[in-house]
Design goal:
The structure is a homodimer. Chain A is α+β, with helices and mostly antiparallel strands. The first copy, chain A, has one domain: Arc Repressor Mutant, subunit A, CATH 1.10.10. Chain A has four helices and three strands. In chain A, strands 1-3-2 form a three-stranded antiparallel beta sheet. In chain A, strand 2 and strand 3 (about 65-75) form a beta hairpin. The longest helix of chain A is centred in the C-terminal third of the chain and has 18 residues, at about 75-90. The first copy, chain A, starts with 11 loop residues before the first helix and ends with a helix. The interface between A and B is medium-sized, with 22 and 23 residues. Chain A binds a DNA duplex through helix 3 and strand 3.
Chain lengths: ~100, ~100
DNA sequence: TAAAGTACTTTATAATATAAACTAATTTAT
DNA sequence: ATAAATTAGTTTATATTATAAAGTACTTTA
């Protein structure tokens, strides 16, 4: 009846992050932070979880001498998002 | 950018319950339990939360001598569900 | 009348999310 | 030169939430 909702994506912040990355393909830590209106701490934790799941890649470098964290969605992340979208639609009864 | 997702509805089981009740308007505890494939304990707790939020009404009676719990969505619950659906659509980019 | 079953609720534990505090460095002001 | 403020995060502690296990209160069946 109701499909499982991937717990990794069924989290407001992580879902927002993935939703953002689906659009832009690559984004900086602060860009994501602003768009999602999250705290640095919370975002840091959730990005790690998405990385551990293999849904995003995180690369660390520097920009104007400051550390810069950049995130990119992976194929696995895209696939997981698609599965999640199909599942949640069952719950919200989106008729195609 | 991203709308708040009502934490009361952003829970797999509670969302499934509300999604069910939107359709049938009234349902028995076991019907909900079967459709959502949840445990009695978890369902009991989540129904109480939905009740406390005023999203559903719970009425208790008897059927064939056994206790019978029946649930019904309230106007507030319907409204909250509609708001949730609008919000989550932003995340999953459902184009109308 | 004892064992098994129905229909839950309560409580305890595990998992999750969030906020606060901390690290490490850079820039700016004194 | 150096202290204070800022940037860009991470780590840790706490609060919240979800879930599973145990418990309550019966009823039915053997």
């Amino acid at each position: 009846m109701f499909k499982e909702l991937d717990p990794l994506l069924h989290s407001q912040l992580r879902l927002a992050v993935i939703s953002l990355l689906i659009g832009v393909k690559e984004a900086e830590f602060n860009f994501i932070k602003e768009k999602t209106e999250s705290s640095s701490g919370n975002l840091s934790v959730q990005l790690q979880k998405l990385k551990e799941a293999g849904y995003i890649e995180i690369s660390k470098g520097f920009k104007d001498n400051f550390p810069l964290t950049t995130c990119k969605i992976t194929d696995k992340g895209i696939k997981a998002f698609e599965v999640y979208v199909k599942a949640i639609k069952q719950y919200i009864q989106v008729k195609k």
